[in-house]
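Translate structure to sequence.
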């Protein structure tokens, strides 16, 4: 993707990230429309472990957020991926993939693993897989996947930051 630059978000990016996220999830089948609010609540709680934006020239095309999760009620050095947002007119061009890969690359040296709730067909390309023993309540197991960088893999129920539930 020519001219695409991925960088950490800055305080000046907050409104653009909110608008981008709202547009990206408008009408999405599995969206409840709160994704922009989740990012804002994570930011307000200082819980955005990593927040990256994709820029082309001066236009923001995408955003990805990573935040800490607990497994079995404990901090195990794992993170959760999401939400991932790309401008509707620029989806399916590899922008989301570039953001995810950049984030995972930065985190794998400081974190033990990452979880994601989403489409298995999409997230398998990043080596996410259903991992026995790592669970998330209320969703079919095939939609909750993990990517581990260190053994042993912890066992237990994953909990996201409270910002995900309001």
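Result:
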């Amino acid at each position: 993707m020519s001219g695409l630059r991925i960088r950490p978000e800055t305080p000046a990016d907050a409104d653009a990230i909110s608008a981008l996220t709202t547009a990206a999830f408008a009408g999405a089948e599995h969206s409840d429309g709160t994704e922009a609010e989740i990012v804002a609540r994570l930011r307000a709680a200082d819980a955005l472990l990593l927040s990256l934006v994709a820029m082309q020239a001066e236009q923001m095309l995408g955003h990805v957020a990573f935040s800490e999760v607990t497994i079995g009620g404990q901090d195990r050095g794992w993170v959760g991926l999401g939400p991932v947002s790309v401008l509707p007119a620029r989806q399916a061009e590899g922008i989301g993939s570039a953001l995810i890969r950049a984030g995972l690359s930065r985190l794998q040296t400081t974190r033990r693993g990452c979880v994601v709730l989403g489409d298995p067909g999409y997230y398998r390309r990043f080596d996410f897989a259903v991992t026995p023993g790592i669970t998330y309540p209320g969703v079919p197991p095939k939609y909750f996947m993990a990517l581990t960088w260190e053994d042993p893999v912890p066992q237990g129920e994953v909990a996201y930051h409270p910002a995900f539930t309001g």
